[in-house]
Amino acid sequence: MKKFTNVADIGDLNAAVAEALEIKKNRFAYTELGRNKTLLMIFFNSSLRTRLSTQKAAMNLGMNVMVLDVNQGAWKLETERGVVMDGDKAEHLLEAIPVMGSYCDIIGVRSFAGLKNKEEDYQERVVEQFIKYSGRPVFSMEAATGHPLQSFADLITIEEYKTTARPKVVLTWAPHPKALPQAVPNSFAEWMNAADYELVVTHPVGYELDPRFVRSEQIEYDQRKAFEGADFIYAKNWSAFADENYGQVLSVDRDWTVDSQKMALTNNAYFMHCLPVRRNMIVTDEVIESERSLVIPEAANREISAQVVIKRLLESLETVSCND
Ligand code: CP
Q1: What tens digit of pLDDT does each residue of 219-243 get?
Q2: Of the four listed, 17, 121, 189, 310, which is most buried by Cβ atoms within 10 Å?
Q3: What is the pTM of this model?
Q4: Is the CB of 48 under 6 A from ligand 1?
Q5: Is the CB of 274 under 6 A from ligand 1?
């Protein structure tokens, strides 16, 4: 594996989950693989889970880890080619990327949707430029339109807790005061479809996701109806995807908050969310604190999904060090 930005990069999902569960039993089995290898983690925006779990995963593999917060202490980066750089941006990504690549063996990139220009966001310019110009294997630690490390952790979690071969998994929109990207729901739907689970997506009219990820027949606009018989409820907010209101908040209707009454409609479903979560907007205290809430084991599995991905990228490296 030379890069990891979507479900196709990981290949066979059964094999990936099996590898994850094997690593979980002994996460220090491959400490030699990463010896004298360096992971550079680059953050264009904030993170708690991704930062800690990915760093831990790399350390489990024996790697050295460097973390760069682009917005704290680095030069401000210009991303557009052809711009006259007479503003506040002192360095161009086109120099910064190969320079960063020269200091490491593998690069993890965390970027975020601008939510102003749909075409720009869906081109994934930042992560794609790292893939093109760094000369290193690159993996997404969440990009503008996808969060594959999260979805892989979600898949591992569902595989651990499911009691039927093909569980009913419901992705539900829930209210949030700010405009959030479609990255997590896009990836979640992509991975759940690849796993061939019964996926139902519920949201208010106007929040339809990219049809490349969610087919129209998978949408149920009645949230309560969608919850009926569900084995897993995955809550997440996202902003509008449609051209006419891309990136906008169309509703903060708290009738969409996941609460105990709605959970009672399910097949005693587990509750999931990628975190961070706004309590009593997305989900009530009662549901997130219930014994059916998986938010903590789900976050813990971020270490495992990251470790599988970094392990596979390490295995793809040639024996020559980038520092040679
Ligand atoms: N779920 C997730 O990616 O969390 P962070 O934004 O804290 O990394």
Answers
A1: 999 999 999 999 999 999 999 999 9
A2: 310
A3: 0.96
A4: yes
A5: yes
Query: 13-25 and 148-161 are packed helices; what angle lies between their axes, rounded to 10 degrees?
Result: 80
47 pocket-lining for ligand 1 (C-beta < 6 Å)? yes
Ligand 1 centroid to residue 83 C-alpha, Å: 32
Q: What is the pLDDT of residues 41-70, one digit of tens each?
A: 999 999 999 999 999 999 999 999 999 999
Give domain 3-146+301-323's CATH number out of 3.40.50.1370, 3.90.550.10, 3.50.30.10, 3.40.50.300: 3.40.50.1370
Domain ranges of the chain: 3-146+301-323, 150-298
Smallest CA-to-CA distance from 130 within 109, 151, 146, 153 is with 109
Q: Give dist(CA 80, CA 176) in Å, integer.
A: 31
Alpha helices in the chain (DSSP H): 7-10, 13-25, 49-60, 93-101, 118-123, 125-133, 148-161, 183-194, 223-227, 260-263, 285-288, 295-316
The verdict on the CB of residue 307 being under 6 Å from ligand 1 is no
Residue 323 is predicted with a pLDDT of: 47
